[in-house]
Design goal:
This protein has 11 helices and 5 strands; from the N terminus they run E-H-E-H-E-H-E-H-E-H-H-H-H-H-H-H. It has about 220 residues and is an alpha/beta fold. The chain has 2 domains: about 130 residues, Rossmann fold (3-Layer(aba) Sandwich), CATH 3.40.50.2300; about 60 residues, Winged helix-like DNA-binding domain superfamily/Winged helix DNA-binding domain (Arc Repressor Mutant, subunit A, Orthogonal Bundle). Helix 2 packs parallel to helix 3. The protein is globular.
Length: about 220
C-alpha cells in the first residue's frame, strides 16, 4: 500500500505534538506538515499535496469550517477529517453536508484515528457510532424519505448506492455485480452529480435520508 500523506491543522502546538506521536507507529502514514490556522494550511497544501487533513474547527484567522469549504472547492480529492472537541449535532450535520469525509472527537482512541485515515482514503468516508447516531436522530426528527420522488434513480444506481453504503471499494463492487471498476466509478461520479452532493459521504447521507439504506 502506498504511503498516505497527512497534515495536522490545529492551533494548539501541544495537541499537534501529541497526535504526531500517537500516529508515528503507523508506517503507512507520513506527516508532511502542521498548521495553526486555515491560511497556513492552504500554503502547506500547495507545497505538499497531502492525501488527508486532520482539521480542527476553532482556529484563529481562517477557521476549520472556512478552510474545509475552500479545500473542497480547490482540492476535491483531499480527504478532510474533522478532529475537534465539539460534539454538537449542528456542527456534525453541517460539516457532513459541507463535504467533509469524517468527524472525530479529539479524545478519540489513536487506533480509531488511524483507522479513519485509512478508511477515508479507501472508501472516501468514515462514519463512527457518534456520527451515525446523530444522523439517525436527525432523520427521525425530520421524517425524511421524500427525496426519491424528486430525483429518480434507476435500479443499477440504487444497487451501487447500497453497496457504497456497505463501505465497499470500487473494485469490490465491480466484482460483485460483474462490471468493470471504471464503469462503477463512472456511475458513482454520475450519482454525485445527479444528486447534487459533494462526495461519497454525501451519497451515504442521501441514501440514509431517503430510506435507501437504514442505520442499524
Amino acid at each position: 500500500m502506498e504511503t498516505i500523506k497527512y497534515v495536522i491543522a490545529d492551533d494548539h502546538a501541544i495537541f499537534r505534538q501529541g497526535l504526531r506521536y500517537a500516529l508515528a507507529d503507523d508506517h503507512q502514514l507520513k506527516l508532511v506538515g502542521e498548521a495553526e490556522n486555515g491560511n497556513a494550511l492552504l500554503e502547506i497544501i500547495k507545497r505538499q499535496e497531502p492525501d488527508v487533513i486532520l482539521l480542527d474547527i476553532k482556529m484563529p484567522g481562517m477557521d476549520g469550517i472556512e478552510a474545509a469549504s475552500k479545500i473542497h472547492e480547490q482540492y476535491p480529492n483531499i480527504k478532510l477529517l474533522m478532529l475537534t472537541t465539539y460534539d454538537d449535532e449542528h456542527f456534525i450535520l453541517h460539516l457532513l453536508e459541507l463535504g467533509i469525509n469524517g468527524y472525530l472527537l479529539k479524545n478519540s482512541d489513536p487506533n480509531e484515528i488511524k483507522r479513519a485515515i485509512h478508511t477515508v482514503v479507501d472508501n472516501d468516508y468514515y462514519f463512527n457510532n457518534m456520527v451515525s447516531t446523530t444522523m439517525l436522530r436527525n432523520m427521525n426528527s425530520r421524517k425524511a424519505g421524500t427525496g426519491l420522488n424528486a430525483i429518480k434513480l434507476n435500479d443499477r444506481e440504487i444497487e451501487i448506492l447500497k453497496l457504497i453504503c456497505q463501505e465497499m471499494k470500487t473494485s469490490e463492487i465491480a466484482a460483485q455485480i460483474f462490471l468493470s471498476p471504471r464503469t462503477v466509478e463512472g456511475i458513482r461520479t454520475n450519482l454525485i452529480d445527479k444528486l447534487g452532493v459533494k462526495n461519497t459521504a454525501g451519497l451515504v447521507l442521501y441514501a440514509l435520508k431517503n430510506n435507501i439504506v437504514n442505520l442499524k
